[in-house]
Amino acid sequence: MTKTGTIYEAIGGFNVVDTLVTAFYQHVGNHPKLTPIFPDDLTETARKQRLFLTQLFGGPRWYTEDRGHPMMKRRHLPFEITPERRDAWLSCMDAALTESGIDEPYRSAIFEKLTMLAQHMMNTPD
Fold first, then answer.
1. Domain boundaries, the chain
2. Is the distance from CB of 54 to CB of 97 less than 8 angstroms?
3. Using 50, 70 and 90 to split pLDDT, how confident is the model at 126?
4. Average pLDDT over residues 102-110
5. Residues 81, 124: contact at Cβ < 8 Å?
6. How confident is the model at residue 85 (pLDDT cuts 50, 70, 90)?
């Protein structure tokens, strides 16, 4: 993705992923459209998200080592993910990307990748 390596390396590695995920779940934990499908305690959810994004961005394959193949669609089937919730999730991620200070072109590349993933996760109409 970059001249020097991965998005993970280009944005600053795990510390930036950690900052991104922390900011993201602060938004998720307060979003009325998302709180019904997330646990009250987001600690474990955020831990898994850190592992997943690290791997997705080209860093160490910690998610696979910890949880096996991502199978994200299957893992999200128990939750009603509507277009409205997809958009709410992306709104939270957009804000977190801004707050974490990820520069272009990486910010747009990350948001595009996560938009496609969020679209894929939908499993329920509004």
1. 7-121
2. no
3. confident
4. 96
5. yes
6. very high
